[in-house]
Design goal:
This protein is α/β, with parallel strands linked by helices. It has ten helices and nine strands.
Length: 307
Amino acid sequence: MKHLIDPTDLTLADIDGILELAEKIMADRPAYAQVAKGKKLATLFFEPSTRTRLSFEAAMLELGGSVIGFSSADTSSAAKGESVADTARVIEKYADIIAMRHPKEGAPLVASMNVDIPVINAGDGGHLHPTQTLTDLLTIKETKGRLSDLTIGFCGDLKFGRTVHSLIKQLSRYENIRFILISPHELQVPDYIKEEVLVKSGASFREVEKMESVIGELDILYMTRVQKERFFNEADYIRLKDSYILDLNKLKKAKDDLKILHPLPRVNEIAVEVDKDPRAVYFEQAEYGKFVRMALIMKLLGLSIEE
């Protein structure tokens, strides 16, 4: 495993190994506090991020390493017209591993093709977000105890939601996963995901427009925001942004052991009143992201501790 660009770069054995290592780190954090001493992570974030960037930085710091990088394209030489390939080649001279977020699909792949250090895709446009997928898988495993035999509902912006696309890709590889895709017609999962992933894998899926009609069937409800930055037409964004709002009244129809995930940031698609419901695990999910990124950094850099 040289880089992580696409979730399918990982075999199921790779995923199991990363999740198991994350669980070991969670159980004994002090044991891993110096494992990356002397190593540097470069966070190259060409578009805004809070959780992903800070969780990568926290992960590297908790492993005993250090962090360099930038949090906006405006503060990098990209503002002067420098290419992604050239940026990566320069950063390779300063760091041991790169985490890159970019608004253009395929940019982290281009970077990985031009350097000899590991590159992690921290989100590329509306395409993929593999470390969020690992975070989601760890959250599901920790809160449901399994990664198979689940009915999972994805709700909201399923067209531009890279977290949705990545997680569908991975979960479709597990046994007896049933997908319910909840969105307005304009924000449905792209045809290429349905044809190349869901149909090809033989996964069970159906598309609906009303959350209330299916919420009682779900083991996992994965909420997403309608992303203003992915729209070319503000009028369409305004028309669709409040399509789905989860509140306690809607949850009356849900299972007692439902788990509610959200990659965050939340706008108004989950009412604040839901935060105190024991089924809401999205803030725990954000913490799991740090541990899974610690495990991924260790795997890509070939780091381990004496056991």
